[in-house]
Design goal:
Distance between the termini: 43 Å
Structural class: alpha/beta
Helix content: 25-40%
Strand order of the largest sheet: 1-2-7-4
Strand content: 5-15%
Length: 333
């Protein structure tokens, strides 16, 4: 991180009235994550802790995160429960059984995703993926196989996957690149790109949630006529990954009173893209009493591994509801 980039980061911590990076990000990093990338994520996390959110009763972000008070500490804590490992696409990975034997399965794209000789983070369109919640995907495979699996990642201890909350997130090429290819590399340290990365982390964190039909809040195929027609790039739930990202950006736009017009315009473009991917716009206040939305439901990470994925039954989840049950399931141990 150059001296030139450091003031730009400090400049956007003005929302909290201070410039401090003493609190390190709570993530563990795989091999292949550079020192600069680690430092950048630590600064991003510090910035998240400096935002002075407005704790409004009608805040959708507050409702979707299910926090008692909407403040920076609550959002940081919500993220920490759901993202634990940041993984480079260049690190070697191997999926194992609990007995330490190589895992081989024909379920979905297990071979494509987890074996180093094949691409790790690739969109169906061939474009660059920003981030991918690998842990949630592995949990779904483990659930289908009726047995926990272990992920071996270069630079980390082997990780036993007992729940979608295992929090293994791999970044793609686009995560540490300027949003506009014509911009200089130094732009990735500015406020806009920090907010872009935080929105991406919160998006992936939502994929660590869910049970039964809502498990991992998996994306839906975008309908005919949509900008992303035919791609798994839309959400049927307003409180899904794109909804979380959209509401985060909405809240930032509310409190970033010093944002320049150019920043605001670009944040609104990111927001519009998130909103465009929601297949419905009804919020929790519009839902009927039989919605799977759970007011006051705690999401203690200590409870995550208590449920048996073969028997767990979520609250009433109906095909047309727009708010999905965020409680996470897991293997009994």
């Amino acid at each position: 991180m150059t001296n030139k980039s450091t003031p730009s980061i400090c400049a956007f911590l003005i929302l909290g009235g201070f410039c401090s990076f003493a609190k390190a990000a709570p993530f563990q990093f795989s091999a292949g994550v550079s020192v600069n990338q680690k430092e950048l994520l630590e600064r991003d996390f510090a910035f998240l802790g400096s935002i002075q959110f407005e704790d409004r009763p009608d805040s959708r972000l507050k409702q979707y995160l299910n926090v008692g008070n909407l403040n920076s500490q609550a959002v940081q804590d919500w993220l920490k429960i759901r993202v634990h490992y940041i993984v480079s696409p260049d690190s070697r990975k191997r999926l194992l059984t609990q007995e330490g034997q190589p895992f081989v399965s024909g379920i979905r794209n297990a071979q494509k995703v987890y074996f180093p000789e094949l691409p790790s983070v690739v969109e169906p369109s061939g474009g660059n993926t920003i981030m991918f919640n690998m842990g949630a995907d592995i949990y779904e495979i483990a659930k289908a196989e009726h047995k926990p699996l272990v992920l071996e990642i270069e630079g980390l201890e082997n990780i036993l996957v007992l729940s979608p909350r295992v929090g293994i997130v791999e970044f793609g090429k686009a995560f540490f690149q300027p949003l506009d290819p014509s911009w200089p590399e130094s732009r990735i340290t500015d406020r806009l790109h920090t907010l872009f990365r935080l929105e991406s982390l919160l998006h992936e964190a939502r994929h660590s949630d869910g049970n039964g039909p809502s498990l991992t809040f998996r994306h839906q195929t975008c309908p005919k006529g949509h900008d992303y027609e035919g791609l798994p790039a839309c959400d049927a739930a307003d409180n899904g990954a794109y909804g979380i990202g959209a509401e985060f950006l909405q809240e930032v736009l509310r409190v970033c009173t010093d944002c320049q017009e150019s920043e605001t315009d670009l944040l609104k473009i990111l927001l519009a893209d998130d909103l465009n991917r929601l297949l419905t716009r009804l919020g929790p206040n519009d839902e009927k009493e039989d919605s799977p939305w759970i007011q006051g439901q705690t999401e203690d990470p200590g409870q995550v591994e208590a449920a048996d994925p073969n028997t767990v039954k979520p609250n009433t989840v109906k095909p047309n509801t727009t708010i999905w049950d965020p409680r996470a399931e897991g293997f009994k141990q």
